[in-house]
């Protein structure tokens, strides 16, 4: 019998409101996070994402509801967060005048009392984040990509089990972004639990297992990344005949101008779909295979109606 995946974080009807606001910024949010998963929290600006992360990481105290880290039941909530949880904020959270190594040494000295472990934790964070070539450089001189890596390295130097990342790739070049996404995928494979916010939805599809959509402080939808239909769009030289349409009738939607869309609910059905498309190869002009389910749902939830 397979072992159950441990629950790392559980929220029950969590709520919080700022004194200057007439509504709750986080309103009755409940969720569970499992070990070794990445959960995205998405929504438009002002949806409550950063406030929710601040509550989960102990920067704010909830006004109602309950936060629990079940894997660390022997610890108080503050102790669990201090020992096992790390936050990578959107803003740079290091000292510009210090070198990469000295920044890490400073933060390790705060999070780890055993000085014998400091060097090990620092070197591990530098290696994980690919900072070897800039370890002695002053943080202010780093490129945007390396600054983002240093932000993450500081979090990793704490040796956390749960890592919250608030738009960790904003404003960097594609190669630096690729390096960070590869690092986060590796952390997830090691059993780290990640919570992720980003406006780059293709990153979410690449990295995350589940998505929570937040609006006005409430979860309005949730989606397992691998559970929604895959989408295949294609155009044809001429309009398909009834005989051709019949090959894919159950899944085919005609969008006009010889443009068709297939929704594939089960990947085990791909073989039949491509066999049918093979019979239409002389008609197909272009074909695009997409799994941008996150973007589709995001647009459906948050696109404002045109007046």
From TrEMBL:
Q: Which UniProt keywords apply?
A: ATP-binding, Nodulation, Nucleotide-binding, Transport
Q: Would the keyword Zinc turn up in this protein's UniProt record?
A: no
Q: Does the keyword DNA-binding apply?
A: no
GO MF entries: ATP binding
Residues annotated as domain ABC transporter: 9-241
Q: Which Gene3D superfamilies match?
A: P-loop containing nucleotide triphosphate hydrolases (3.40.50.300)
Its family?
A: Belongs to the ABC transporter superfamily.
Q: What is this protein called?
A: ABC transporter ATP-binding protein
Task: Give the organism, scientific name.
Answer: Pseudoalteromonas prydzensis
The lineage is:
Bacteria, Pseudomonadati, Pseudomonadota, Gammaproteobacteria, Alteromonadales
């Amino acid at each position: 019998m397979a072992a159950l995946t441990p629950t790392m974080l559980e929220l029950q009807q969590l709520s919080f409101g700022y004194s200057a606001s007439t509504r709750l910024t986080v309103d009755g949010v409940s969720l569970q996070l499992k070990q070794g998963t990445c959960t995205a929290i998405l929504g438009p600006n002002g949806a409550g994402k950063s406030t929710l992360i601040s509550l989960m990481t102990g920067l704010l105290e909830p006004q109602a509801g309950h936060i629990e880290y079940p894997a660390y039941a022997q610890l108080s909530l503050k102790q669990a967060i201090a020992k096992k949880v790390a936050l990578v904020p959107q803003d740079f959270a290091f000292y510009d005048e210090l070198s990469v190594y000295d920044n890490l040494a400073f933060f390790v000295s705060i999070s780890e009392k055993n000085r014998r472990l400091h060097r090990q934790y620092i070197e591990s964070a530098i290696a994980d984040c690919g900072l070897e070539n800039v370890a002695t450089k002053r943080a202010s001189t780093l490129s945007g990509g390396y600054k983002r890596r240093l932000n993450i390295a500081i979090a990793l130097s704490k040796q956390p089990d749960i890592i919250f990342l608030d738009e960790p790739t904003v404003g960097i070049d594609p190669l630096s972004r690729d390096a960070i996404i590869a690092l986060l995928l590796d952390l997830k494979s090691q059993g780290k639990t990640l919570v992720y916010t980003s406006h780059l939805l293709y990153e979410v599809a690449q990295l995350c297992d589940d998505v929570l959509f937040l609006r006005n402080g409430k979860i309005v939808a949730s989606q397992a990344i691998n559970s929604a239909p895959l989408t295949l769009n294609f155009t044809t030289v001429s309009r398909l005949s009834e005989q051709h349409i019949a090959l894919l009738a159950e899944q085919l939607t005609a969008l006009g101008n010889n443009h068709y869309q297939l929704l594939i609910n089960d990947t085990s059905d791909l073989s039949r779909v491509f066999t049918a498309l093979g019979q239409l190869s002389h008609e197909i002009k272009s074909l695009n295979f997409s799994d941008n389910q996150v973007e589709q749902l995001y647009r459906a939830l948050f696109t404002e109606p045109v007046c």
